[in-house]
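Exercise: predict the structure of this protein bound to flavin-adenine dinucleotide.
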Amino acid sequence: MNQHKIICKEVKRQNHDTKIIRFQNFENDDFNFEAGQFVMLSKEDFVNDKNRPVKRAYSICNAPYESNIIEFLIQILPNGKFTSNVLDFVKSGDKLSMSRAHGRMVLNKKKPKGILLFAAGIRICPIRSILREYYHLFEDIPILLFYCARNKDDFHYIDEFLEYEKNRNFKIYISFTSKIEKKPNEWIGIQGRMNEKFIKDYISNIENINEYETYICTPKKLFELINNTLTNIGLKQDLILHECW
Ligand SMILES: Cc1cc2nc3c(=O)[nH]c(=O)nc-3n(C[C@H](O)[C@H](O)[C@H](O)COP(=O)(O)OP(=O)(O)OC[C@H]3O[C@@H](n4cnc5c(N)ncnc54)[C@H](O)[C@@H]3O)c2cc1C
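Solution:
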């Protein structure tokens, strides 16, 4: 089936411009996805000038094992066609359409030596899905998450990540570009842009780092910086997967 109907179960405001929206599949629907993938969302009666439904891509934030729930983290853009006219008004009980899942940034199911994750702001969505799925499959693998955003408010799921730090072999390193705000003391990282030194400082000495798998979801320029840094350290290109938007 190419289009799936989903029904909104819950909407939670996250900060000034983002919302978590949870949907459920209709009974007997055959939708499935892999951690890291995205879908195209649309609403039947919200159409373009050719009378076709407006469609936009959204990454699934939760993991495939959490069956029947599909979670999105959505940034509402003030002049954005789909976000400000449709997603900003979605409430419990509303129905949307969803495509099959797309995207090649999906996890390799073999147990890895370790995982590096990189995300910027709202682009944490597919990275969180991968993180949750990996810890469901393999409780003990080392995972490092490098997460950058402008303001403290633009980091998402931080409490969940700090909880993983207490219970799993997990570390989060943040970089934080706002000059006005102060980094919370309990967050490890830098105040400034993510750069080569920041990444190298935390991973150069890790044993078997060249066998780690990497997943990156950032804008293209930042992806290039991260990819070059990792390649210089000796990580294998075929173990670095990304989704840029
Ligand atoms: C693979 C993938 C995964 C994604 N996952 C997510 C996700 O998980 N969460 C998420 O929030 N987003 C995600 N996105 C982005 C999402 O697909 C949309 O692009 C986003 O929600 C904006 O859609 P929109 O219709 O609201 O904005 P659009 O109308 O498409 O506008 C996009 C931008 O252009 C500006 N704009 C619009 N019209 C004009 C104009 N005439 N002149 C100048 N500027 C203009 C708008 O203000 C806005 O900033 C993803 C994108 C991709 C490709």
